[in-house]
Amino acid sequence: MVEEEPPFLQGHGRQWVELSPVKIVKNPDGSLAQSAMMGNALQKERREMKQAQRESEVNSMPTALNNDWIDPMPEDGGRTLAANMRGVGMAPKEEPEWKKHISGGAKASYGKKETKSILEQRQSLPIYKLKDDL
């Protein structure tokens, strides 16, 4: 490695520049800190709402569902109710609105649309012309 400074850089090298360390300043009243606190509060509120919804679903579930399975001649719909209650308390399958908006929902499409058939696509590749030579 060459240690000499070129003439056009003389006086501008690293040893001539005195850098002061960057001061780290905390600003607890700043906008970033406020938005972080608001985000935490919103997240906590959403979590509590979901938990309350799950608890209400579990509390609304009828008890003694097992009796319908034991009974050889249950009332109409007794077994179907028990079968439907199996998924209660699990995560909902619905996506939130913001996620549907971002992902495009059911009509989402990924990648470039191609109108050519696969054979035409292969033939349009540059290497296809060299296939016989290889």
UniProtKB/TrEMBL annotation:
<feature type="region of interest" description="Disordered">
    <location>
        <begin position="43"/>
        <end position="134"/>
    </location>
</feature>
<feature type="compositionally biased region" description="Basic and acidic residues">
    <location>
        <begin position="43"/>
        <end position="57"/>
    </location>
</feature>
<protein>
    <submittedName>
        <fullName>Uncharacterized protein</fullName>
    </submittedName>
</protein>
